[in-house]
Amino acid sequence: MSREQITHQNQTQGADQKAEEERPMMEGAAAEPVAGGKVWLVGAGPSDAGLMTLRGKAVLEQADVVVYDKLVGQGIMALIPPETELINVGKEAGRHPVPQEEINHILLREARKGRRVVRLKGGDPFVFGRGGEELELLCEWGIPFEIVPGITSAVAVPAYNGIPVTHRDFCSSFHVITGHTKNKPEAEINYKALVDMGGTCIFLMGITAMEGICQGLLSAGMEPTVAAAVLERGTTAHQRRVVSDIAHLPEAAKAAQIRTPAIIVVGEVCTLADRFSWAEQRPLGGLKIAVTRPRDRSSRLAEQLSLFGAEVVLLPAIQTQPVVENQALSTALAHIGEYDWLVFTSPAGVQIFFAELLQRRMDIRSLAGIQIAAIGQATRQAIEERGLFTDLMPQVYSGETLGRLLADRLLQERRRGKSGRVLLPRARKGTEDVIRPLLSEGFAVTDIALYDTLLQAENPKARWDESVDYTTFTSASTVQGFAAMHPEIDYSAVKAVCIGQQTAKAAAGLGMQVFISKEATMDSMTELLMELSSREAGKMAQAESGEAQQ
What's the CA gap between 125 and 123, in Å, rounded? Predict the structure, then answer.
């Protein structure tokens, strides 16, 4: 089966036939499940990938197939390994392309193949998530399952908007109510009981029924001046809130053009929203940033950006693949003591080189007497993690600068009688800028292809869209990989934050809006994004001030 998203047409085609095939077995005793087949109902939380539980993430990474909803956050979707199959059963308000009964059968069908199936649901699977319905068929068939609770949007979304669902000065309870039921567009709600209890009321899936909900509370005796709020896209970078009172909330929401997904909160705790707001106050709050580094090297930048409040989407545009049966490397390592310098131009090169040493039962003592050069700070850090220090690193992190600096050092050492032999293990398609100054001075360079840089193909799990504010690129190859993943988009809409001139040149060549960090480091890229965020905030404040004066 294809790893691409399964469309509604593919999913439902032949559904009646499948049901007929399964019905005779279902009517009898439950069949024995296929060995290894199991279903996990996993709550993905409200959207922010940082709110996914550790247990949920661990299960997700081991899945063979993920059956997911529309409300699962983009950052969480990017955590799914590339080889995992995806089945999209997303629902929208008033539109259910894959009926619930068919979803139940999909879970059963995939589990009976002996697969590890994750049913990934927004929020918590048992809080209006139909988790109980999906378990019924699995129980009939004796399919083993687990529940991994998620953080419900009923609590998380108000919290991200500065609204505590309980507060001793206002209320001592909160109540979560669905805005619609299984067979009716509007839920049958006992508004009188809600008003009498006096707690905070949180309505999920109630945007289309907002006017009826507010009128129901008013008719049940709620004071028209009671505070109320509607919270759109909660926990994402672009979350919005409208705070009003119960009598005017529908009108205010309409004026603000509030759309789903959103929740309604009714109670005096809503008056605390402006005072307790915090998510937008963070240095990168309000920004959605895409990280295109390889999956195994994206964590540091992603963690930094997330720490400062950004919504981070992982879009790994390239991956590294070690060269197999590398005879050239074997020959060089057999004569490792003959080299004067070992030069690394990327953290990936460091990682793969030392992995090869370990595989050949060679340790760092075999490098005794060899000096080590690194192209930049990240590469130096990777070397130091192996218990070694670098002897040379340019202030400007580029291949040309490294080559010139090393050539100057080798000329000095030549006068002292050293031969100046250089071992350069790196990507197969590495820049010639590093080697050119060395060869021009007559130094011997053993240039070994250590790994290939592969561009990522189009990946439905990791897609860029115009909701992304900035996209970070740490090499020209990540730009090329991004373009290969998204051949159809308008690149002029991409705001590219680039780590250096070569990367910026590749981005500009595609027509992207280019911003270059002062230094070729993750810290400098983060600082640039903070500057850009501050600049945008200043423009917005100026525009709002102008509107107020008018």
Answer: 7
User: Quick one: how far is CA 153 from the chain centroid?
Assistant: 19
- My answer on whether 257 and 311 are in the same domain is no
Q: How far apart are CA 117 and CA 121, in angstroms?
A: 13
**Alpha-carbon span 310 to 145, nearest angstrom:** 35
Last residue of a domain, one of 117, 134, 151: 151
Written as tens digits, the pLDDT of the chain (550 aa) is 444 444 334 444 444 444 444 443 444 334 454 567 999 999 999 999 999 999 999 999 999 999 998 889 888 988 888 889 999 997 655 556 789 999 999 999 999 999 999 999 999 999 988 889 999 999 999 999 999 999 999 999 999 999 999 999 999 999 999 976 555 555 689 999 999 999 999 999 889 999 999 999 999 999 999 999 999 999 999 999 999 999 999 999 999 999 999 999 999 999 999 999 999 999 999 999 999 988 777 678 899 999 999 999 999 888 889 999 899 999 999 999 999 999 999 889 999 999 999 998 998 899 999 999 999 888 999 999 999 999 999 988 788 899 999 999 999 988 888 888 999 999 998 888 899 999 999 999 999 999 998 887 666 667 898 999 999 999 888 999 999 999 999 999 999 999 988 899 999 999 999 999 998 888 999 999 999 999 887 776 666 655 555 5
- Asked which of 121, 151, 181 is the last residue of a domain, the reply is 151
Structural domain boundaries, residue 430: 322-454
Same domain? 332 vs 431: yes
CATH of the domain at 469: 3.40.50.10090
Q: How many domains does the chain have?
A: 4
Say what the pTM is.
Answer: 0.82
Biggest CA-to-CA distance, the chain: 96
Please tell me which residue in 91, 192, 452, 505 is annotated as part of the active site.
91
Q: Is residue 169 in some structural domain?
A: yes
Is residue 8 one of the residues assigned to a domain?
no
Inside any domain, residue 246 = yes
Q: Which of 38, 48, 64, 69 is catalytic?
A: 69
Domain match, 146 and 173 both: no
Contact (CB, 8 A) for 141 and 221? no
549 is a domain residue: no
Q: What is the CATH number of the domain that holds 239?
A: 3.30.950.10
Classify residue 174 by its DSSP letter: E
Q: Which 3 state secondary structure label does DSSP give 2?
A: coil
Whether 169 is catalytic is no
Q: How many residues are given for the chain?
A: 550
Residue 77 sits in a domain of what CATH number?
3.40.1010.10
**Residue whose structure tokens are 């890229």:** 525
Residue 69 among the catalytic residues: yes
